[in-house]
Design brief:
The protein is mostly helical. The protein has helices at 27-30, 59-65, 72-81, 83-86, 89-122, 126-154, 164-172, and strands at 2-3, 10-11.
Length: 173
């Protein structure tokens, strides 16, 4: 069996290039003549390691991510418990405000659902059809407002949601 002179990998009978490294094989090896022992693998020096990379996001990016639609409450909880983020007042404010806003949205959703069921029961289902577009418009408005909050947080501004923002600011200090 023939071996590549560059990498030491095995060569197929009649091969003109090494299948492992792609090096051109001399004609005597390509014809299947016996080769010397494979060359030892090159010794590589270890890659120097510098200082460790930054462990966290910039505060404006972390604050912005807290308002991500549909998953912002999960990110907000993470920012409130993870060590590099829970100590930054800007990130804590945005995370707490998003968490409180999500709780308020759950409450409004429950009220809208109950209201929709009552209206549908009174109107034999027609009221439920009326509530569907209202429900869709409500959630589109929520997404648009969250995008606005993300924009403000990214610009290092403290977006204040009425009532909720004041409470979050008092809690953060």
């Amino acid at each position: 069996m023939a071996f590549c002179a560059s990498c030491g990998g095995p060569l197929n009978q009649g091969a003109t290039f090494c299948g492992s490294c792609g090096a051109k094989v001399s004609s005597s090896l390509a014809q299947g003549s016996a080769a010397a022992a494979p060359a030892p693998a090159p010794v590589r020096s270890p890659v120097p390691t510098g200082a460790p990379a930054s462990t966290g996001l910039a505060p404006n990016v972390a604050g912005m991510l807290a308002y991500t639609p549909f998953v912002g409450w999960i990110i907000a909880v993470l920012w409130l418990v993870l060590d590099p983020y829970k100590n930054d007042p800007f990130i804590r404010f945005n995370a707490l405000q998003e968490l409180l806003f999500s709780v308020a949205l759950v409450g409004v959703s429950i009220v809208f659902s109950i209201l929709g069921m009552i209206i549908a029961a009174i109107t034999s289902g027609f009221g439920g059809l009326v509530m569907l577009p209202i429900w869709g418009i409500f959630w589109l408005a929520v997404i648009a407002y969250k995008l606005y909050l993300m924009y403000r947080a990214y610009n290092n501004e403290r977006p204040m949601i009425p009532f909720i923002g004041e409470f979050a600011a008092k809690q953060v200090g």
